[in-house]
C-alpha cells in the first residue's frame, strides 16, 4: 500500500526525485529508511532493476541499520561487499569529513561532504547507463548542525546530490528531517508559523523549505487518539490520492 | 482570467514602458504554484513557436528544477518533438555555488555546456553574483533570438525563493527591475513561495509585478482535505492596468494529467439581488421591531422639555402660578393657551389616582434662568 501511495513503479525511485520523511519525537520515522533500503537493495521481482545506495549516517552507526535491515530480510553487509551499498559513517572518530577537513579548511563542511558523496557515486558506476543511485541522509537536522545552523547550505547540499549524474540518470535523494526540532518548537513551545529568528531577518525552517521542494513528503505522526498497542502512528503523503495508513 | 494572463505574456511590452511582470505566489496549502507556472510557460512557448507572441525567444532560469525538464516535449507545444534554439536555459540548478569547479576561480566564470545539442543551457557557477546572473540571462536571451538586437525575448525565473536564500531584498528587487528595464525583454514571469518569506518581502516583490496570481486552496485547510487541495484550488489574479486601475479576477483550477483546467467562479455578491432589503436589527430572542400601530403611538407622545414643533412656546410647570401670565394680564394680553396648557396639565383627569403638589422653597426665588447667578457680584 505504501508503494502505491508513493507511486513506486517497481524500478526504483524516479531519477532526480527528492523524498522527504518528516517525523517528530512522538512518532519517529527512522524505520522508513530501512524500509527504503530493503525496497531498493532487494527488489521484489527479477525484472525490476536494482538500485545502489549511498547512505550518509549521522544519527546511528552502521550496526544499527544492519541489525534492523537483517530482521526485514535485507543483508547490508553483503550489499556493502557487493558494491551495491556504501555507508558513510559520520559518527566515527576520524571519519572522512573531519579528517579531510583538517587539510582543506577553505571549503565548507557540507561542500566537503558533497565531494565525498560524489566520489562514492562515481566509484559505484559499473558502466550500465540504466543504473540508479539513491543517496539517503539520516538526518537533515544534523546536517544543519554541521553547517552551523545554515539551512541554505543544507538545501544546497541536497540539491547538489540530486544533480549528480550516474549514467543517464540523476541521483535520487531520501532525507529524514525532524519537524519539531526547529527553534519555533523550542522550550517555549511557541509556533511562529514555521519561521526562525535569525538576527534581524526571519527565515523559514528547514522542514518548511524542504516541504516546498520535495517531490514526495512522507509525514510520520502519532495517532490522534493516543497510544495504542498494535498501531504506533500514522503515515501521510499529501501528494498522493491514497489516504493515510496506520502502522 | 488565465487567458488574460497568457495574453499579457504574449503581447509583451508597449513602447516606452517596462516589461510586464507576472508573479505567481503559492503556499504549502496548495503546492500548485509550479504547475500553474508550467501552464503559462507552455502557453508562451506555443505562442512563440506559432509566431503569435511579441517575444521571439524565451530564457528559463532553472533554479528549482533540472534544465532538461524545460526541454521535455511534454512541457511545451503539443506534438513537437524538438524545439529550436529560441528556448535557452540558464542552469542555476547543477552547480549554483561552484562546488564542482575545483581549483578554478568560479566567481565570475560562466561556462556553457553544449555536449547535447538539444539541451542548450548556460551553466551558472555562482548564483551569489546577481550581476553575473543578469549578464547570463541577457546573453542567453540574445542567443535565443539569433543575436538580433531589435528582437525581444521573454524571461522565466522558476523560483525567486531560491534567489532570496542568497540575496537581500534590495539586491533582488534591483535585479528584477533591471531585467524589466532591459529593452529586449518582452515579459518576465517568476514564482514565489509566499510562506517562506516575510510579508514585507513578498509585498516588495508584488510592487514590481504588473500581475499577481494568488494560488489559494479551494477549501479551508483541513487535515482531511489536504489531499484534495493538491489537485484543485482557486486562482485570484490582480492586474494593474496602464490607466492605473486594478482589476481582480477569480477562477478555479483543476490539475490533470494533460494540464490545468480553469473554470470561472460565480462570486456570492453576484448571486444576491440588488434590491434585497437588509435588516440591521440584531437577531435576539425578543422582538425589537415596531408594528404600525406602535409607530403611530410613538409619534403622538408629547415629549417633556421639548417644543412640539407647533410654533408655541413650551411651558414648564414649576409648582406655582405662572408669573408670565400675571405679567401679560397686567398688560391686558390674554395667554389663554398657556394657561389652558397649565390647567390641562394640573387638572386631574377622570380616573386619575394621584396628584403631584410641588411647593417651592421660596416664592421670592426667581425661576431658574440661563443667566449666571454670579453676575451681580461686585468684587
From TrEMBL, chain A:
* Pfam families xrefs: ELP6 (PF09807)
Q: In which pathway does it act?
A: tRNA modification; 5-methoxycarbonylmethyl-2-thiouridine-tRNA biosynthesis
Against Gene3D superfamilies, the record matches this protein to: P-loop containing nucleotide triphosphate hydrolases (3.40.50.300)
Recorded hits in InterPro entries, A to Z, give: ELP6, P-loop_NTPase
The residues that cross the membrane are none
Q: An example of a Gene Ontology BP annotation on this entry?
A: tRNA wobble uridine modification
> What is one cellular component GO term in this UniProt entry?
elongator holoenzyme complex
Q: Report the CDD domains cross-referenced here.
A: Elp6
Q: Which family does it belong to?
A: Belongs to the ELP6 family.
Can you say what this protein is called? Answer: Elongator complex protein 6
UniProtKB/TrEMBL annotation, chain B:
- What highest taxon heads this organism's lineage? Eukaryota
What's a GO biological-process term for it? tRNA wobble uridine modification
Task: Give positions of region: Disordered.
Answer: 353-379
Q: Where is the composition biased (Acidic residues)?
A: 364-379
Question: What family is this?
Answer: Belongs to the ELP5 family.
Q: Which InterPro entries match?
A: Elp5, P-loop_NTPase
What protein does this entry describe?
A: Elongator complex protein 5
Tell me the organism: Ceratodon purpureus
Q: Which CDD domains does this UniProt record tie to the protein?
A: Elp5 (cd19496)
Any Gene Ontology CC annotation? cytosol
What residue stretch is flagged as signal peptide?
none
Known pathway = tRNA modification; 5-methoxycarbonylmethyl-2-thiouridine-tRNA biosynthesis
List, in alphabetical order, the Gene Ontology terms for molecular function in this entry. tRNA binding
Q: Where in the cell is it found?
A: Cytoplasm; Nucleus
> Which of UniProt's keywords are assigned here?
Cytoplasm, Nucleus, tRNA processing
Amino acid at each position: 500500500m505504501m508503494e502505491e501511495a508513493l507511486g513506486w513503479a517497481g524500478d526504483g525511485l524516479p531519477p532526480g526525485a527528492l523524498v522527504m520523511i518528516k517525523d517528530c519525537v512522538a512518532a519517529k520515522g527512522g524505520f522508513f529508511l530501512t524500509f527504503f533500503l530493503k525496497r531498493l537493495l532487494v527488489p521484489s521481482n527479477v525484472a525490476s532493476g536494482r538500485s545502489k545506495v549511498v547512505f550518509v549516517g549521522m544519527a546511528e552507526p552502521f550496526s544499527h541499520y544492519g541489525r534492523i535491515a537483517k530482521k526485514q530480510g535485507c543483508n547490508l553487509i553483503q550489499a556493502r561487499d557487493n558494491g551495491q551499498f556504501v555507508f558513510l559513517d559520520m559518527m566515527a572518530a576520524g571519519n572522512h569529513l573531519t579528517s579531510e577537513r583538517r587539510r582543506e579548511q577553505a571549503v565548507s563542511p557540507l561542500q566537503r561532504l558533497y565531494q565525498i558523496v560524489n566520489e562514492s557515486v562515481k566509484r559505484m558506476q559499473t558502466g550500465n547507463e540504466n543504473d540508479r543511485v539513491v543517496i539517503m541522509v539520516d538526518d537533515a537536522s544534523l546536517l544543519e548542525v554541521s553547517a552551523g545552523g545554515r539551512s541554505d547550505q543544507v538545501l544546497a547540499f541536497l540539491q547538489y546530490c540530486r544533480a549528480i549524474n550516474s549514467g543517464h540518470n540523476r541521483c535520487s535523494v531520501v532525507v529524514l528531517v525532524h519537524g519539531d526540532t526547529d527553534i519555533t518548537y523550542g522550550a517555549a513551545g511557541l509556533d511562529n508559523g514555521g519561521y526562525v529568528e535569525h538576527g534581524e531577518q526571519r527565515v523559514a525552517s528547514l522542514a518548511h523549505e524542504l516541504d516546498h521542494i520535495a517531490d514526495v513528503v512522507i509525514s510520520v505522526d502519532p495517532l490522534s487518539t493516543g497510544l495504542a498497542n498494535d498501531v504506533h502512528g500514522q503515515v501521510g503523503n499529501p501528494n498522493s490520492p491514497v489516504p493515510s495508513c496506520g502502522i | 482570467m488565465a487567458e488574460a494572463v497568457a495574453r499579457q505574456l504574449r503581447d509583451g511590452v508597449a513602447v516606452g514602458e517596462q516589461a510586464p511582470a507576472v508573479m505567481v505566489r503559492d503556499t504549502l496549502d496548495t503546492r500548485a504554484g509550479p504547475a500553474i507556472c508550467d501552464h503559462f510557460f507552455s502557453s508562451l512557448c506555443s505562442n512563440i513557436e506559432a509566431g503569435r507572441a511579441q517575444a521571439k525567444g524565451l530564457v528559463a532560469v532553472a533554479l528549482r528544477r533540472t534544465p532538461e525538464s524545460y526541454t521535455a516535449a511534454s512541457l511545451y507545444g503539443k506534438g513537437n518533438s524538438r524545439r529550436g534554439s529560441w528556448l535557452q536555459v540558464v542552469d542555476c540548478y547543477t552547480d549554483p555555488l561552484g562546488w564542482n569547479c575545483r581549483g578554478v576561480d568560479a566567481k565570475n566564470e560562466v561556462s556553457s555546456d553544449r555536449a547535447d545539442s538539444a539541451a542548450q543551457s548556460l551553466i551558472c557557477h555562482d548564483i551569489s553574483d546577481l550581476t553575473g546572473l543578469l549578464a547570463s540571462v541577457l546573453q542567453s536571451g540574445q542567443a535565443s533570438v539569433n543575436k538580433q538586437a531589435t528582437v525581444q525575448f521573454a524571461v522565466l525565473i522558476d523560483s525567486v525563493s531560491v534567489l532570496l536564500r542568497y540575496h537581500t531584498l534590495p539586491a533582488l528587487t534591483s535585479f528584477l527591475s533591471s531585467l524589466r528595464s532591459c529593452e529586449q525583454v518582452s515579459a518576465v514571469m517568476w514564482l514565489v513561495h509566499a510562506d517562506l518569506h516575510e510579508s514585507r518581502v513578498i509585498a516588495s516583490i508584488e510592487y514590481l509585478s504588473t500581475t499577481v496570481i494568488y494560488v489559494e486552496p479551494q477549501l479551508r485547510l483541513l487535515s482531511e482535505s489536504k489531499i484534495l487541495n493538491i489537485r484543485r484550488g482557486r486562482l485570484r489574479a490582480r492586474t494593474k492596468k496602464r490607466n492605473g486601475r486594478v482589476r481582480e479576477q477569480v477562477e478555479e483550477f483543476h490539475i490533470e494529467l494533460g494540464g490545468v483546467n480553469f473554470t470561472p467562479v460565480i462570486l456570492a455578491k453576484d448571486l444576491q439581488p440588488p434590491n434585497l432589503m437588509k435588516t440591521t436589527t440584531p437577531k435576539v430572542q425578543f422582538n425589537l421591531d415596531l408594528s404600525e400601530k406602535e409607530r403611530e403611538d410613538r409619534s403622538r407622545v408629547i415629549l417633556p422639555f421639548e417644543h412640539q414643533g407647533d410654533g408655541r412656546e413650551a411651558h414648564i410647570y414649576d409648582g406655582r402660578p405662572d408669573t408670565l401670565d400675571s405679567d401679560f394680564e397686567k398688560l391686558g394680553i390674554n395667554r389663554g393657551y398657556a394657561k389652558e396648557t397649565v390647567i390641562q396639565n394640573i387638572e386631574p383627569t377622570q380616573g386619575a389616582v394621584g396628584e403631584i403638589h410641588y411647593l417651592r422653597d421660596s416664592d421670592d426665588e426667581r425661576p431658574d434662568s440661563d443667566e449666571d447667578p454670579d453676575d451681580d457680584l461686585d468684587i
